[in-house]
Amino acid sequence: MRIHNIVVLAMAAGAGIGALGMRGLQAQTKLPVYMIGMVDVRDADGYAKEYLPPARDSISAHGGVTLAAGTGTVIEGSPPGKRFVILRWDSLEQLKGWRYSPEYEEAHKNGMKYASFTVVAVPGVK
Asked: pLDDT per residue over 68-120, tens digit each?
């Protein structure tokens, strides 16, 4: 009888630990946020030298990941600009934390001398 109680208790503890583990995994399935930037570059040299290096550094420092960047092939419509970037962030809060950070604010101020920016955030899907 005593062995039986120990086995039942061990099974109950295992089920409880498994349930907590599943809850933790479900919390980790938060979908990313994608930032799409469309850039109209007026001065390619100034943009490449004064804006891009600090902007890229700030993206990495704040946890963003660059998925695509460069000139795009327009399939339909007239986008505002010929240069595009797609970044991945863990959350909208993380994206906004980067966008309004002092590091990026300074880079953006320099970038506005050479280009205009249209930026949208799009939630990921399952």
From this structure: 999 999 999 999 999 999 999 999 999 999 999 999 999 999 999 999 999 99
Which of 10, 2, 59 shows the shortest CA–CA distance to 35? 59
Distance CA 41, CA 115 (A): 4
Place of tokens 């960047």: 69
Cβ contacts of 68 within 8 Å, gap of 6 or more: 84, 85, 86
Whether residue 98 is found in the same domain as residue 40: yes
Backbone dihedral region of 61: left (phi > 0), alpha (psi from -120 to 50 degrees) or beta? alpha
Find the domain containing 61 and state its range: 33-123
Instruction: Say if pTM beats, i.e. exceeds, 0.85.
Output: no
Both 23 and 37 in a single domain? no
- For residue 68, count other CB atoms closer than 10 A to its CB: 10
